[in-house]
Amino acid sequence: MIRITDATLSTVNHKYAQKDTLTDMYRLLLLTGVNYVEIPMSLLDILGDSVDLSRTVLRVEHAAQIRNYPGFIRYICRHSGFEVPSGTISEFQINDIREVNLLRRFSELENVRIVGLDDLLQHDYLNIFERLKLLLGNQLEFCPQNNYFFATALAVEWILSGGENIVASFGGGGGLAALEEVVMALRIVRRHKPNLDLSVLRALKKHYEELTGISIRGNKPVIGDKIFDVESGIHVDGIFKNGANYEPFEPSVVGMERKIVVGKHSGRTTIEIKLKEYGIDLPKERITDLLGKIQEMSIALGRSITDQEFIKLADNIAK
């Protein structure tokens, strides 16, 4: 069984965040198909009655604090060497594969989370995965860090190798695997679909940008605003015939739409589709003229042209 814990709210600075933003983000994270959402103690008063104890992991600073917050499905804290109550996840930072064997002494722990191992993909990672499972069993949570940009790949490979528990964060916040990428990858390669509708990712992106002040780049996998922008003529033609040839998932799955953009790589098919989109009736013999003007402008500007620029060029050609 695949179990995903989201740690977004434990990785962002929410000191100056609006209560409504945090509450809505917590609610939306629960709708992404994750099993649990991890939150720090500092969010309890802010989230109030909206907290679902059965799906929330509470991060505490030390195990003694757990008795003050009863009812949560799980608790997590850095392992201190002392005995921990049942239901507590003991967290270990492992930065070097040579440290893996040191975990042998903690095999009696009920739940363990391993954070780190960011360069694992450069080693015999499948063998390391098997050693981890042998030492700590199926209650092991793997939380790969992203210093070498391997985190998403490691999280997915962990599941494909038979691991059951992974930790990620929206947008890869806090240097972890990107939740949306992990969820989508497992949806595609393992048909893991706990939630058929991932359109909530659009609202989550907005809240995340507001909360962190970080603008997510347009080509960010799964959630970037421009990932379904298509310019090249042959690609446009192919996508409209069968989108699955080029896209691993339909734009509607993540609440987006495919957008045809025009520029120096565009062909006649792209122009014809764009003209139809805006209801512009242009004689076929003039489409070549329009295409030439578009390519000239795109090269001069060093970018694709906007819809407004396209309409203006088309109107000028039509006169």
UniProtKB/TrEMBL annotation:
Enzyme class label: transferase
GO molecular function, one term: 2-isopropylmalate synthase activity
Tagged with keyword Transferase: yes
This enzyme's EC code(s): 2.3.3.13
Keywords, alphabetical: Acyltransferase, Transferase
Residues that span the membrane, as ranges: none
2-isopropylmalate synthase/homocitrate synthase post-catalytic domain sequence ranges: 222-297
Domain of life of the source: Bacteria
Name this polypeptide is given: 2-isopropylmalate synthase
Gene name linked to the record: leuA_5
